[in-house]
Design goal:
Layout: H1 9-16, H2 21-32, H3 36-119, H4 125-160, H5 164-175, E1 179-180, E2 184-185
Length: about 190
């Protein structure tokens, strides 16, 4: 060993008792003149750099794994969103089909009700009143025409005189199916 000559170990050891483990070794090597402290420091700096490098690698590995998981989760989310949209489209299409069939059923019901209403049309109070008014008007017209026919028959009798046969032939020809033999025009 080069450097200072080592002193008595008994004198050095008591002062070493208060120094921690690594510091003790470092101190002992310095006392003997060795360069162990520098070596340890460079070893510890080197291992510290290696440890930092290892920690960085571990972080990068974890980060890459997390990125892969994020990509997987994102693709799963897109897939599920697509499935949900498809399910909503199918549900909407089914709802449209259901509404279309409901509309067809309702239209059939409306037609059936209109047909049923048509059957009750004759007993509709407004319709009955309109019919009654129409009947009154038709009877008034029939009465006027009947009066006109009677006036015309009276005039023909005066012109024809006592020729009943000729009067009956003329009535039969004019009245057609409404002629009653011997009575003339049938009653309405």
């Amino acid at each position: 060993m080069t450097g200072k000559p080592a002193g008595k170990p008994q004198k050095i050891l008591p002062s070493l008792a208060s120094i921690n483990g690594l510091q003790r070794e470092d101190y002992a090597q310095r006392q003997q003149g060795g360069s162990g402290a520098n070596t340890d420091r460079s070893i510890s700096n080197s291992s510290w750099r290696e440890q930092l490098h290892e920690d960085q690698k571990d972080r990068d590995t974890v980060m890459a794994r997390l990125q892969d998981e994020k990509t997987t989760v994102d693709s799963s989310i897109r897939y599920l969103e697509t499935r949900v949209a498809l399910a909503l489209d199918l549900k909407q299409a089914d709802a449209m089909k259901a509404l279309a069939s409901l509309q067809e059923a309702l239209e059939r019901d409306v037609m059936a009700l209109r047909n049923e209403l048509e059957g009750y049309r004759d007993i509709d109070p407004q319709r009955i009143k309109a019919r009654m008014d129409e009947i009154v008007q038709l009877k008034a017209k029939a009465g006027r025409w009947t009066n006109n026919i009677e006036i015309l028959e009276g005039w023909l009798r005066r012109v024809l005189g006592a020729d009943k046969e000729r009067m009956n032939c003329l009535q039969k020809e004019c009245y057609g199916a409404d002629y009653v033999e011997g009575d003339g025009l049938r009653e309405l």
